[in-house]
Amino acid sequence: MKIKMKAKTKKILVLSVMVVLLVTTGVLNFVLNDKLTGSANNAGNNVNSPTVTQTFFAAARSDRDATRESEFLWLDAIVKSEASSESAKTEAEAQKMMLIKRMEKENALETTIKGKGFEDAIVTIGDGVISVVVGKAELSGAEANQIQAAVVSEMACDPNDVKVIAYV
């Protein structure tokens, strides 16, 4: 049994879901930041504690996943909307495929970087820039070059488009 909804009702439903996701992201961010602050204060303000690093990477992944989820919901709403033109639907499908490919490449790069002996890493692929945050207090030039070479090899991009950042 298929229930037919009006376009206005669908839009309201999609926007409501997006608001719920946004609020959830905010709450998670607040809770994780509270744990981060509490852990730092309990450790005598030791910002280099492993808990702080793990919380940073967990929060970054959570924020990235929540953003991607809302992007997918938005694109799905365009595809499913009767009011959307065929070109808009085609473009939305293409953007979904691009996001999926980015996600796969980000995961592959994170795994590769961790496999090279780094504690943790988060990769974000944007338009024209690839950011890599690595769980290490300081990176030597050789380590940064090693990460950059792995990204350039996987992405077939210009080395100047890769930003490597140490975080602990």
Write a concise synopsis of the structure shown.
With 168 residues, the chain is mainly α.
**Helix segment count?**
4
Structural class, by secondary structure, is mainly alpha
The sequence of SSEs as H and E is: HHHEEHE
Strand order of the largest sheet: 1-2-3
Span from first to last CA?
54 Å
> Helical residue percent?
55-70%
Any idea what the shape is? flat
Low-pLDDT regions: 43-48
Written description of the protein model:
This protein has helices at residues 7-42, 50-80, 86-115, 141-155, and strands at 121-125, 130-134, 162-166. It is mainly alpha-helical. Strands 1-2-3 form a three-stranded mixed sheet, with helices on both faces. Helix 1 (7-42) runs antiparallel to helix 2 (50-80), helix 2 runs antiparallel to helix 3 and helix 3 runs antiparallel to helix 4. Residues 43-48 have low confidence and may be disordered.
